[in-house]
Structures are given as C-alpha cells and as structure tokens.
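hey so i finaly got around to running the thing on Ribosomal RNA small subunit methyltransferase E from Sphingomonas rubra. pasting the sequence first so u can double check i didnt mess up the copy paste, my clipboard has been acting weird all day
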Amino acid sequence: RLFVDEPLGPGARRIDGPPAHYLLQVMRLKPGDPVKLFDDRTGEWLATVAAAGKRDLTVEVTGLLRPREAVPDLWLCAAPLKKGRVDWLAEKACELGVDRLVPVVTRRTVVDKPNTDRLRAHMIEAAEQCDRTALPQLADPVKLPALLRDWPAERTLFFADEAGGAPALGAMAGAPGPAAILIGPEGGFDAEERDLVRAHASAVGVSLGPRILRADTAAAAAVALWMAAAGD
Ligand code: SAM
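ok and heres what it spat out for the 3d tokens, dont ask me to read them lol
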C-alpha cells in the first residue's frame, strides 16, 4: 500500500525513487503482483505490476477501491517540538484524523523552523500503515500573534492550558463545528501569550486533567477527546 503524490486514475504509471525501492527491494514485487495506491485526492486504487526494472517499475492502475475518506474538521495548532517528539506528533495527528497540522511558533519554541519534508514523510508513512486515504495538510509555520490575528471566527480554538480550564471533553462536546486545538511547546506558553489566547473571541481554555503532560502527549490526548466528543 503506497502513497503517490499525484492524482491517480486508470492506466499505466511509472514509479521510481524511494517508493520503487520499497516495492522492489522490500516488498519484492514481481510482474502480476497487486498493489494498492492512494493519492490524498481521489482515493485508493488497485493496480498490478506490469514491469519491474532494477530501480523503477510500471504499474497498471485498474479500479477505484474507495474514494478519499471524509476527514473531521479539526486543526491541530502545535508548537514545533524537538526532533523525535514532533515526528511522533505528526504521525499521531495523521492516525487520529486531524485535517490540518499548523506549526505555531511561540516565545519558548525551541525549534523555529520544523523540517516540513520530514514531518510530511512521517504522516505519509502513518497513512500507508493505517489504511488512511487522506493526509493532514501541513501549514507553514506561523507566529502565535499572527495565528490569532487571522483566526477564522467560526472555528473554535480549544486552548489546552495546564494551568486549568473547563474539562476538555465536556467543553468540546458543547461546541460542535469546525475546531482547532492549541498546544504549547516543551516550556509551555508564557503569561503574556496565555493572556493573549484567553482574550481571543474564539478561544475556549480547556484542561486535560490535573497532571502536566508532555506537549506531544497533550496533543494526542486532546485530539482523541475531540474525536470522541464529535463522534468521529
Ligand atoms: N515540559 C513538558 C514537555 O517537555 O513536554 C511539559 C510541557 S507542557 C507545559 C506543554 C503543553 O502541553 C502546554 O502548553 C499545554 O498546551 C499542554 N498541556 C500539558 N498538560 C496539560 C494539561 N493537563 N491540560 C491542558 N493542557 C496541557
């Protein structure tokens, strides 16, 4: 099962680069073998290997197995974390069905420029492994004040605040519709940032419980709670 970064449709298609390496050297596919392809646009397609070279292969795409899934309207706005932790976060955002991952640069953010290629690669791998037909969009990093200034009014911003707030599950169940979750960096938001977010018209401060969670854990827990509240 493989992600292809261009629209799929019936007909022959050449695959090269790392995906070809995976299919030829790891999966050891031979002519006649089936393979499933998905593109994050049309859905998942069945294909058959038509020819296999050393570094590339040609597949014949035959039929649409399922259209691209509907994705819950949830954004995850999270401060970029150190490598490893942010990779995990991107993977879980994809598995849990987040529609858009927005890296938010805050005063205590340690990594200002996350490696978006690497994050996308982690999301693609998660989608391949977890039978997803859709990937989260990966937004350009944005500073917190700019994020709040340009915020779409109709989207509730659940601000995960370890200092306290309404219990997250109830607050999320009580505010259906387009939503986003805001998670701070390893060092948390500073007092001024916290005031700025809390004063925003779309923000709802929520607590994930009395224990302080690591930022990546908080992100996954908050997304899971929102999905449970939304029935998604
Ligand atoms: N120092 C740890 C780390 O390295 O990950 C903890 C960081 S915690 C301050 C980072 C973010 O997780 C916070 O800004 C907040 O958004 C979220 N968070 C952690 N625990 C939380 C809780 N119990 N309730 C709400 N949000 C929480």
